[in-house]
Structures are given as structure tokens and as C-alpha cells.
Specification:
This protein has 232 residues and is mainly alpha-helical. It has one domain. It has eight helices and no strands. It is globular, with a radius of gyration of 20 Å. Component of the gamma-secretase complex.
Length: 232
């Protein structure tokens, strides 16, 4: 379902594809920088100190989240400049794409790249060695990882809409809410292998973020009801 966002809403528009690829690149750069800092911190520390290594892992995750959101802000500023350029070049003085559409496409770009890396890590684990659950652990590792990947793709899409709206209207509390939600979802991963403790809250946050993004995009309960009832 997550990759259907690209096929049905982005694939036919070249401009949207460019924005999506650029958004994926921004997320990739943020991951590269955060991974580099975490790698240096691990190499400079005592590998035998388990408490320190766990603390560095938590630090790495939280720092990665903050860096991703910082790059999301940089990408917003870049797209804002791009809109001004598109307006200046257009004959009618209008941009061919709105900031709301850019926010959606940028969010999908962040989400798809995040999901792609999650899938790569999952496939790497599937190659072995070992068997999932052989020591009595949960055998639902791959299934729950797939569901977690999907929720992160959707969350990045909704976070993109919320974040850009907050930047556009200078509602800094909306930006703070996105950062807090992102930190929360990432922190919930430390509940594993208690997968219910991470999946259920993440999906509840996804529903809340989806409803919020829908309302900020101009949606209403009446429009949603007409859509569900297949009424024009």
C-alpha cells in the first residue's frame, strides 16, 4: 500500500518525481551523517561496556531523528525558493504545484527511502545465520518489521504535510509536534521484542497524524463520508 502512493499519485507527474527523488536524497544524507557520527562515537568508546553501548545506540537513534527533521526543514526552504523560481518563469504567474502538494510528495520521498532501508536491513537479517525464534523468541520478527516499515512510510508522509504547514504558517508548535511524534515512534522500537508495545502505539499515532494532516489539507468530515460512500 505504501508504494501505491507513488504509483497512483506521483508517477505520472515529472515534477513530482523530481521532488520525491530530491526528498529521498535529503533523507539519505541525514542518515549518512547520523550514521557517521554514531560510528565514530562507538569506535571511540569501550566496546566491552554494555551500558555505554546501549546509551550510544539510544543517542544515535535520537540524533538521527533530529537530523532528519533538520534536513526536512532545509528541504522546505529549498522548495520554497523553487516555488518562487517557478512563479517567475511561468506565463500566468502561478506555480504548477502548490506547497501542499510539495509537502505530500516530499513526505512520500522521505518515507519511501526510509522504507527501502528498512527492507534492506530486513533482507540482510533473513540471509542468516540462525533461525528466527529458535531460542524461544517471537517468530513474528519479519511480519512485525514489515508492518513497522509500512507505518513509518505513512508517518513520514503525514509528517511532511504537518511540518510544511507549520513552516508555512509559522506555527512552530506543529513542527515541535512532528519532532515529538518522530522521537516517540523511534523510541518505541526499544520496546522490541515486545512488538505489541511498539506497533500499537505507532499505528495509533499514524491515525492521529493522518486525521490531522487531512484536516490541514482542507479535508472535512463531510468530504470523507462522501468518499467512503462513493458519492460524487
Amino acid at each position: 500500500p505504501a508504494f501505491g502512493l507513488f504509483i497512483f499519485t506521483i508517477a505520472r507527474d515529472p515534477l513530482r518525481i523530481i521532488i520525491l527523488i530530491a526528498g529521498a536524497f535529503f533523507w539519505l544524507v541525514s542518515l549518512l551523517l547520523s550514521s557517521l557520527i554514531w560510528f565514530i562515537a562507538v569506535k571511540a568508546s569501550d566496546p566491552q561496556d554494555e551500558r555505554l553501548q546501549k546509551g550510544l545506540l539510544i543517542f544515535g537513534v535520537m540524533f538521527s531523528v533530529l537530523l532528519q527533521e533538520a534536513f526536512r526543514f532545509l528541504y522546505y526552504k529549498l522548495l520554497r525558493k523553487a516555488i518562487e523560481g517557478l512563479v517567475a518563469l511561468s506565463e500566468d504567474g502561478c506555480s504548477p504545484i502548490s506547497i501542499q502538494q510539495m509537502a505530500y510528495v516530499a513526505g512520500v520521498g522521505f518515507g519511501l527511502m526510509s522504507g527501502a532501508f528498512s527492507m534492506i536491513n530486513l533482507l540482510a537479517d533473513a540471509l542468516g545465520p540462525g533461525t528466527v525464534g529458535i531460542h524461544g523468541d517471537s517468530q513474528l520478527y519479519f511480519l512485525t518489521s514489515a508492518f513497522m516499515t509500512m507505518v513509518l512510510i505513512f508517518l513520514h508522509t503525514f509528517w511532511g504535510i504537518l511540518f510544511f504547514h507549520g513552516c508555512e504558517h509559522r506555527r512552530w508548535w506543529e513542527i515541535a509536534a512532528v519532532v515529538i511524534m518522530h522521537l516517540t515512534v523511534s523510541g518505541l522500537s526499544f520496546c522490541n521484542p515486545l512488538y505489541v508495545g511498539s506497533l500499537v502505539p505507532s499505528y495509533l499515532l499514524m491515525v492521529a497524524a493522518a486525521a490531522w494532516a487531512y484536516l490541514l489539507s482542507g479535508g472535512s468530515a463531510q468530504n470523507l463520508r462522501r468518499f467512503l460512500l462513493c458519492k460524487c
